[in-house]
Design brief:
This protein has 19 helices and 2 strands. Strand 1 and strand 2 form a beta hairpin. The longest helix is centred in the middle third of the chain and has 37 residues. The chain is 66% helix and 1% strand. By secondary structure, it is mostly helical. A two-stranded antiparallel sheet has the order 1-2. It is globular. The relative contact order is 0.12.
Length: 508
């Protein structure tokens, strides 16, 4: 009976509350697992902080990861993978474990449809569509992580793994990279500083993980379409060959029937999969994310390179090729991953400002990235552009954007800035003038945007500050708008008028 009541309770929860409760429960269980694994060598507050940082794929750690037990590394790897799967997939998994099939709940399926499908209005997805989307996300994640791990294993220099096995270091780094966690079991990636190819592998994983699953699913559907066309051509070639054989000999070899049968079967299966796989982004959102990501990467790369190229503590001693690879790597990681190949405490102040801006913006929605998201930032710029002409709708690439998307973008931005301002004041009071304000602010933005960069402050935090930073990570990962909806009991985002014409853009 208690279990039945618990299931009924979870079935009545709104999506926002289920997300918040699911992430908090995962952090709580993870903290106990880490505490037990370290056998008392790690305080419970540090265990809780490390668990929150892992689930929220942040990358900040109050202790050196190289000094933790191998079992602890495995637990962290599991937490990183679980937290990095994304809000939707994480909730489906947690909900399934709790209620034995929450994806069969029509209300939940309707919310999933509204949250992931930017090409349609709110509608209820079928259970098999939710399951296919989840399976696709998991396939994408695991495939890219395995490819990245193999690439690192084969190419990275000998000895960079430290006291760990080469294969586990490669696997941990690949999973941490794709999920934008920024954790390294050797504490940093300084050992790869002079290995551009390995840095580009890690950068590629970070970019794919941070751009968002809707864009990757769109790419998957495009590749499936191309593959179906190739299969069709194979089928036509097989049929042509069969006809030639039949005209010459009067018989059709059975062997020639197999390619045609297999091609027809595969074409039907791929076509059915492509038709029912939902969750892809719109063409407009894809352009925003791809162009936006490129612009931010270029901005960060150029700024970091020119500001640090003569800094004796960072880039000055590097060869030109290594300066390029490290500047690009730092630009990529500034938006969400938090990997470092050098001590960030030696960066120029202007470089720190650039990194802070990149951290706050973050990556794409429904991915492993943090921040307010590129789409939110771009919508705000488009909205500000229309301030002088308030009667005109917000437009991107020549198309009108949904009023609802613009409204949510504005709310996310102001909620984030107001919340960060209050937390910043409180952290300043707790710090008691021990550290510079820019160091505290940098740590705060890094936590909220789940990046993991630090100016050497994390290890000096007190217990209350660690709990507060863990809460900031939690809000940054779940989404401040989601937390607000869960706290107020609101069912969702109201429509801006009876008709909301325009392209829906995912934000926050």
């Amino acid at each position: 009976m208690p279990l039945a009541r618990l299931k009924r309770f979870f079935r009545t929860l709104s999506f926002a509350r289920l997300v918040c409760l699911g992430f908090f429960t995962a952090i709580l269980f993870g903290s106990f697992a880490l505490y037990i694994s370290e056998e008392g060598e790690l305080s419970y507050v540090d265990s809780f902080y490390l668990s929150a940082s892992s689930i929220c794929v942040t990358g900040l750690s109050p202790v050196r990861l190289s000094g933790l037990n191998p079992g602890t590394h495995w637990i962290m790897l599991f937490l990183i993978q679980l937290g990095g799967l994304g809000i939707i997939s994480f909730t489906v998994i947690v909900g399934f474990l709790i209620t034995q099939g929450i994806s069969r709940n029509a209300r939940f399926n309707a919310f999933v449809g509204a949250a992931i499908d930017t090409q349609a209005e709110t509608e209820s997805l079928a259970t098999n569509e939710v399951n296919r989307m989840l399976l696709s996300i998991i396939n994408i994640s695991f495939s890219l992580e395995i490819l990245g791990a193999i690439g690192l294993y084969l190419h990275m220099p000998d000895g960079v793994e430290g006291g760990n096995t080469r294969w586990f270091f490669s696997l941990f780094t690949a999973i941490s990279s794709f999920n934008n966690a920024g954790f390294s079991i050797t504490d940093d990636l300084s050992a790869l500083r002079l290995d551009p190819f390995s840095l580009y592998i890690v950068s590629g994983l970070v970019i794919f993980g941070g751009i968002g699953f809707p864009v990757i699913i769109l790419l998957e559907k495009f590749l499936l379409t191309v593959f179906v066309r190739i299969v069709y051509r194979i089928e036509v070639m097989a049929e042509t060959l069969m006809m030639e054989k039949a005209l010459k000999t009067g018989n059709v070899p059975r062997l020639l029937l197999l390619p045609a049968q297999f091609s027809a079967f595969l074409e039907n299966r791929l076509g059915d999969y492509n038709k029912h796989l939902r969750g892809e982004t719109t063409r407009i959102q894809s352009k925003v994310l791809v162009y936006g990501s490129f612009a931010l990467l270029l901005f960060g790369f150029v700024g970091i390179y020119f500001l640090e190229r003569f800094n004796p503590h960072t880039f000055h001693e590097l060869a030109f090729v290594d300066k390029i690879s490290n500047a690009f790597f730092m630009s990529v990681c500034s938006r969400t991953a938090g990997f470092s190949t050098m001590d960030l405490g030696h960066l120029n102040d202007a470089t720190v400002i650039i990194i802070t801006v990149l951290m706050f913006i973050g990556g794409g929605p429904q991915g492993t990235a943090g921040g307010i998201k590129i789409t939110t930032f771009v919508l705000l710029l488009a909205y500000l552009k229309n301030v002088i002409q308030p009667s005109k709708p917000v437009m991107l690439f020549g198309e009108t954007v949904s009023k609802n998307s613009v409204a949510v973008a504005i709310r996310v931005y102001f909620l984030a800035t107001i919340a960060l301002a209050f937390v910043f004041i409180f952290l300043g009071i707790l710090d008691q003038n021990q550290h510079s304000l820019h160091v505290i602010f940098f740590e705060l933005i890094s936590s909220f945007s789940t990046v993991g960069f630090t100016l050497n402050l994390t290890s000096q935090l007190g217990d209350i500050e660690k709990i507060l930073y863990a809460a900031v990570m939690y809000v940054g990962r779940v989404g401040i708008f989601t937390v607000l909806i869960a706290a107020t009991g609101h069912s969702g985002v109201p429509k801006m008028g009876t008709v909301d014409d325009g392209v829906k853009i995912q934000v926050g």
